[in-house]
Amino acid sequence: MAEEKALNDQMVARRQKMKALVDDLNVDPFGHRFDRDSLAADLHAKYDDQTQEELEENPVEVIIAGRMVAKRGAGKVIFADLRDGSGQIQIYARRDDLGDNYPIIKRADLGDFLGIKGTMMKTEAGELTVLVSHLTHLSKALRPMPDKFHGISDVETRYRKRYLDLIANNESLVRFQNRSKIVAAIREHMDANHFLEVETPILQTQAGGAAAKPFITHHNALNIDMYMRIATELYLKRLIVGGMERVYEIGRIFRNEGMDPKHNPEFTTLESYAAYWDFTDVMDETEGIFRAAAKVVHPDLQVNYQGTDIDLSKPFARKHMVDLIKEKTGVDFWPEMTLEEARQLADEHHVKYEEYWQVGHIINEFFDNFVEDTLSQPTFVYGHPVEVSPLAKKNADDPRFTDRFELYIVGSEFANAFTELNDPIDQRARFEAQAAERDNGNDEAEGIDEDFLEALEYGMPPTGGLGIGIDRLVMLLTDAASIRDVVLFPTMRPE
């Protein structure tokens, strides 16, 4: 209660200062457009190396604006720190210079936005500073800022009130600036490789393209249930059928699933499809995307994630799932076996399985249990069983497996890709198998998308498809432990 009372006292004091701006100084507490000509970072880049004497001999006038984040001094002189979107710079205000303008900064609180006109100088201590010649009040902060701008340690507050996190934690601000740069770099890379960026429906009449539970809503005018998309895949492949030979989409995906450090109910993916490619071409594409994204944050392509050094400059390893399982466990799934034999192997190695699972499901579970967490350096794991890959083309030499890969780094999946299944008859059989799984208890299995099957019947060329989780990629490149650290407004339980 004492803390709440203190906070309320500060809020009262700030409102009193707001009123005084109007009554005593005739200043609008919530000002108007302000035309600045300089940013803090640019001023540091231009003038940090100049001496005090050089700045005095060649005076430079600047106009800056930002939030006041520190304030020192009283009486006739005040030093303060002003922060804009690029960084922070010190200002120096003297009553003799400002006259009637001086009370504005004297009464300003931490968090207030100020516009400054002044001259570049350096203090005796050598700190680059703007000597203020005129000051404009731009906006009053009616609540106190996070304590001393040393950061917000409470994780809940950081996620619920991201604006405070960005104000107080420069690391968060830089991380989200880097996220935007990463996404821009991916777009630039895709465009340079002749991919066309497109948009597909977020509201769909049938959820497909992934094994996941959808969010369901209702369209009143049509009186039908609709689904928030769980993937962009099936619509993008319709475009390949239509003659758009290389397409991609960076967009929001929605899955009604659990939440943990790697999962948020809404997240961002890149999906791309290229006609006449197979999954080996997509491996090359994926390496190119990862390097393009990494370069904007790590020009040398050397990344440290949570203490693990990762080298993105070298070719990524390429290993078959069955070979990896054999390396880690000694169990060899290459010989053909019955379901009972696979279940016996699972029992011997304490691998749990569902009643409806086939041999391929058990192979995939062995990988999840014994291999996934061990893959630290970038590794393409290919050859997924057909039972867990309903949209991937079967391998020509061994139809038990598909021409599919997942990319693993530091024990996490970062990409999923395959040579697309373009045989509508086989695709229908896969959809029917998925529907049977759903009837047997797998509520994440796909249904039968008749419109997509019809599109395939018009002919889709051999195609390589790719999906990358943008949030996880940003986590990797910015050393973020949780997906909530790279999503500006993560899903939270209401307070």
Automatic annotation (TrEMBL):
Self-association state and partner proteins as the record states: Homodimer.
Alphabetically ordered keywords of this record: Aminoacyl-tRNA synthetase, ATP-binding, Cytoplasm, Ligase, Magnesium, Metal-binding, Nucleotide-binding, Protein biosynthesis
HAMAP family the UniProt entry points to: Lys_tRNA_synth_class2 (MF_00252)
Residue ranges occupied by any Aminoacyl-transfer RNA synthetases class-II family profile domain in the UniProt entry: 179-494
A Pfam cross-reference name: tRNA_anti-codon
MF annotations from Gene Ontology: ATP binding; catalytic activity, acting on a protein; lysine-tRNA ligase activity; magnesium ion binding; transferase activity; tRNA binding
The organism of origin for this protein: Fructobacillus pseudoficulneus
SUPFAM superfamilies documented for this protein: Class II aaRS and biotin synthetases (SSF55681), Nucleic acid-binding proteins (SSF50249)
EC number: 6.1.1.6
EC category name: ligase
Annotated Mg(2+) 2 binding sites: E413
GO CC terms of this entry: cytosol
Main location: cytoplasm
Catalytic reaction annotation: tRNA(Lys) + L-lysine + ATP = L-lysyl-tRNA(Lys) + AMP + diphosphate
Family note: Belongs to the class-II aminoacyl-tRNA synthetase family.
Location(s), subcellular: Cytoplasm
Entry keyword Zinc: no
InterPro entries: Aa-tRNA-synt_II, aa-tRNA-synth_II, aa-tRNA-synth_II/BPL/LPL, Lys-tRNA-ligase_II, Lys-tRNA-ligase_II_N, Lys-tRNA-synth_II_C, NA-bd_OB-fold, NA-bd_OB_tRNA
Name of the protein this chain belongs to: Lysine--tRNA ligase
Cofactor note: Binds 3 Mg(2+) ions per subunit.
Keyword Calcium attached: no
